[in-house]
Structure formats: C-alpha cells, structure tokens
Specification:
The protein is α/β, with parallel strands linked by helices and about 375 residues long. The protein has 17 helices and 5 strands. Strands 3-2-1-4-5 form a 5-stranded mixed sheet. The radius of gyration is 28 Å and the shape is elongated.
Length: about 375
C-alpha cells in the first residue's frame, strides 16, 4: 500500500503543500488559498495520488491560520501530525539552497515527517477547550491593558500630586479609582471638603468611603503649590480611572464566563482537585492544549521530562509553579537540599505536579495526597 507525506507550510491567507512518497520523490507542490473550497480540492487531489493508501498530513501550526485546515482534515478522518516551526527552521540548514520559500519549507516539513518517528498525531480540541482558549487570551489582553493604564495613572498622579498617589491603592481598591473619576487635584479636594467628599463617595458606592475621604483631604492639605500641566494631567487621570473601572467590570464578567465553562469540562473536577488549581488556573491549562503538541492519550500539555529536546509549555509550567508555591511549598526543602536554587526547585516541583496531573487525567482520578503531603499539611508547612 502506498504511503505519502503531505507537508503544509501554513499561513494566514495561503498555505503551500508539498507531497512526497517513501523515496522522497516530490509528487505535488501547490499553493492554495485558506478557503474551504480550495482546501477540499487539495485534499481530494492528494488522496487520489495515494491511490487508497495512507496519507500523513504534517503542519507547522496547530492553531490560528491553520484552524480551518485542521478542522477540515479532522472532518475527513485524516491523520494529522504537528512539526513545530523551530524544528523546521533548524532542519533547513541540512537542505540545499539558501533561499527561504514556502515551497521549500513545505518540502522540509514533509521530508522531516517521513524520516522522524517522534511526531505525535494531533487531536481536534473539544468545544469547551477552544472557548477557554479564546476567553483566557482575552483575559490576558485585558490584564495587560489594566496594568498599563494603572502604571500610566500612577505616573501622572505622581508628577503633579504625589501625596494622593501614595494615599490611594488604585491597583487593588476600586474606592481610590472612584475618587479619581471626580476629583484629581489638591484644590478640587479642598474645595469640596471632607464631609461632602465622603457623601459623594457613598453615593458612588465606594467601599470604606470615610477612610478614603480622610486620606484624600489629608493629601490635599499637604500640597498647596500648583504644578505646571496639572489640569491636563488631572483630566487624563480621570479618564484612566474610568477606563480601569470599566476593565475591572469586564474582567469580573469574563472570569465568571471562564469559570462557568471550565466547570462544564469533563476534566474540571479532576483538575480542580489538585491543591492550588482553581477555575482560572485550570482554564489556562485546558486552553494551552490548543497551542502545544498533544502528548500520548492524555493530550493536555507537554511535560519537559518526556524528552530533553521537547519544548515545554511555558505558561503551563508557570501556572503549575504558582500552584506549587500555594499548595506544596513545604516540599521545596527536599529540592533545595539537593543543591537546586529556589527557582530551579520550584520548577522541578511544578513539573512533578504536572506529571501527577497527567496521570490523574489519564485515570480520571481526583487528587489524593500522599503520606508525606499529609504530614506536611499537619505540621503547618502547607497552606492552601
């Protein structure tokens, strides 16, 4: 039975496909638009070339512009392998020609798949995981926007009213932001006075209005000098405060949506049973499966100890690192005793926890703490 390898250099608007046989002979080289009709025609032509044999499709993207192609091949029950772009980049030095073209990359992808035995089939992600990927990516964008806005607000406020910047916790408290939507200058605060300011804050439903009013008036009384550019800076601070409050509302709504979808996922109970992994962190782990190689029957994320050259999903490790610090910090001592630095010890522990989580998902079993973990919890070394 004839076997073919179809290497695809995926892009946004177009893909390039090169098909080779077991001898490496090129049978087809075609540029196709990233549209269903053109992709369907390509699949039909390649299957016709195979004469009923096996075709292994290989792609260098597992999301984004390759999404339609992946869905189409899955719908046709075709075997699809993933070859990361960095492997293609390094492998290119072993092929003739210095120029980089889509056709050359597609041929390298096909030839590498023909020779390698370490590529794992990709699986189409379930609907909830794809939704979580979209929502968690959006949440990351919003968090970055919020951080930038807060930093900008604090920088402006420090420039013309440093006492108020020190008095307000705009990063963690909505009350300070509410104050800044209406009053941003020393003279404005002194003009309204403490009693009216507290009443205004209460009307705006600011938490702990008396304390905020006291701190704001005290800061205003500490500065009588007017700084150049104060009015424009104050106006900008007011707009930034509104923007941050709106971002806070959107983030709360997004977190609720993420949690609701996460709890509907078939792995939610197992993931959340791991100490330190809640709905948001669990959603991140499920979402990352859309961006990395799917390993074995579990297919959630890459675990570095599988193979030294395998790329580790950095976010998954960071997420597990965070949960490790929250849940099993007492076990770091054994890692440190082996001579590891703190960061190395935390990463080693995080990867151990990822291995445990993979086994839990494989067996569909909730987390059961071992004797050492129970003893550490009893001694107070672990806090959840």
């Amino acid at each position: 039975m004839r076997q073919l390898w179809a290497g695809i250099d995926a892009g946004k608007g177009h893909h390039h496909c090169v098909v080779i046989d077991s001898d490496g002979t090129r049978l087809l080289s075609r540029r196709v638009a990233n549209d269903e009709a053109d992709l369907t025609t390509l699949v039909d032509d390649v299957l016709e070339l195979s004469g009923g044999g096996v075709v292994k499709w290989v792609v260098d993207l597992n999301s984004g512009g390759a999404g339609l192609l992946i869905a189409l091949l899955a719908d046709r029950d075709q075997m699809l392998l993933y070859l990361p772009g960095r492997i293609v980049y390094h492998a290119a030095t072993g092929y003739r020609g210095d120029s980089k073209t889509d056709a050359k990359d597609a041929a390298i992808i096909a030839d590498q798949a023909r020779m390698r035995r370490d590529l794992h089939p990709m699986r189409v992600d379930d609907e909830i995981s794809v939704e979580l990927k979209i929502l968690t990516s959006r949440r990351t964008d919003l968090m970055r926007d919020r951080t930038r806005a807060i930093n900008r607000l604090r920088a402006l406020l420090t420039g013309y009213f440093p006492a108020l910047e020190r008095a307000l916790d705009v990063r963690n408290s909505a009350g300070g932001l509410i104050l800044l939507t209406g009053y941003q200058t020393p003279d404005g605060l002194r003009k309204i006075g403490r009693a009216k300011l507290e009443a205004w804050l209460r009307k705006k439903k600011a938490y702990n209005a008396p304390r905020i009013a006291d701190a704001a008036i005290e800061a205003a009384n500490m500065q009588l000098v007017r700084v150049a550019g104060q009015d424009v800076a104050a106006s900008t601070v007011g707009r930034l405060a509104h923007q941050i409050l709106n971002l806070n509302v959107e983030l709360r709504e997004l977190d609720s949506s993420i949690e609701e979808r996460f709890r509907r996922h078939r792995h939610a109970e197992v993931i959340e049973s791991m100490p330190g992994l809640g709905p948001l962190l669990g959603a991140e782990l499920l979402a990352r499966r859309c961006r990395v190689i799917l390993v074995g029957s579990v297919g959630i994320f890459i675990v570095a100890p599988i193979r030294p050259q395998v790329v580790t999903c950095v976010l998954s490790v960071c997420a597990a690192q965070f949960s490790a610090q929250c849940a099993v910090a007492g076990l770091l001592q054994s890692e440190r005793a082996e001579g590891k630095r703190h960061t190395q010890a935390v990463l080693a522990l995080a990867r151990r926890r990822l291995n445990v989580l993979c086994a839990m998902l494989r067996d569909n079993a909730v987390y059961q703490p071992g004797p050492d973990l129970v003893a550490a919890a009893a001694s107070g070394a672990i806090t959840e």
